[in-house]
Amino acid sequence: MTKMPAAIATGLGKWNCEEINVPSVESGKVLVKTNLASICGSDLHITYMGWNVSEFPLPHGYPGHEGIGLVVDGSDTGYHAGELVLTVPNIWQSKCFAGYQLIDPQFLLRLPSGIPESHLLMAQQLGTVVFGCRRLPSLVGKTVAVIGQGSVGLFHDFMLRKMGAHKIIGIEPVPERLNAGKNLGIDHAIDVTGEKATEAVMDLTDGEGADLVVEAVGSVETFNQTLQIVKLFGQVVAFGLPPSPEKILFDWDTFFRKCVRMHTIFRGQDEPGLPAFHLAVDYIAKGEIDMAPFVTHQFPIWDVQEAFDLADAREDGALKVSLTFD
Fold first, then answer.
1. What gap in Å lies between CA 61 and CA 139, rounded to an integer?
2. How far is CA 20 from CA 6, 286, 323, in A?
3. Taking CA 299 as the corner, what is the angle to CA 69 and CA 291, rounded to the nearest 5 degrees?
4. CATH 3.90.180.10: does it fit domain 3-125+268-324?
5. What CA–CA distances, in Å, run from 322 to 158, 163, 206, 296?
6. Fold of 136-264
7. Phi, psi (degrees; rounded to nearest 5) at 186
8. What pLDDT digit, counting tens, does each position of 29-84 carry?
């Protein structure tokens, strides 16, 4: 096999699939044949909003970073042909939207057999949520609000409950996504946005706000909304990416007056040994989280434009849109 299909972003919201050469084997790297790759919200921010982009076209396969495939050649890395692996490259090496990847072994995780690959693929995004949740204090008895019930928000519902959260409030205007949150056991489902959602959270918390607020959308409005619904001395997790590379307006006054702690989530893939992703795979393998509801849509790599447009539109009940390479 000397040629492979590879998606390429040629402009904002514009995708093509081309046939290019398979990467040549290099010492110290692993050649992996991609079986599945899923679209992350950050991929949409990069290719539909221009976040962290200086010019188009982008490199072939970029910015895909959620993949699963088979080792073709492990070179001198200790990986062997035929092994099933999760590919979790960091943003600078992300090329999962291509039929083959040449990847550093530090971004690979061997996977168990007997579990649908589409389910195991979800371990990448769940792993980033696990990584972020390890930075949180005890949530026993606490009230948390999760803005957005896409896959990231839903994985937070799962993890925050495991960490002892007493009350979970989910905010999401898309009915299918909010229903998915209900199925994961959120205590209160808010189907409105903006000021009405803020009022609903304050009503549910007797005017105090939530102990912890997770922003899982990636917009200026929801980012600043976290400061309105977090309580005094509370904490905010800014998981979603900003909608553009430009500086955004920030409600510093509320942030300051409430003495809020805030942090972002990044570089989970750079943690030696990928412990967060190991744990995510364990959750899936042991059946602690059912990934079947998340696997909603699959498209051949040649239909990459249609796949990205659906992921961006959030229609037809789409939670996680994946690309196939058969």
1. 39
2. 7, 39, 17
3. 65
4. yes
5. 21, 29, 41, 8
6. Rossmann fold (3.40.50)
7. -65, 150
8. 999 999 999 999 999 999 999 988 889 999 999 999 999 999 999 999 999 999 99
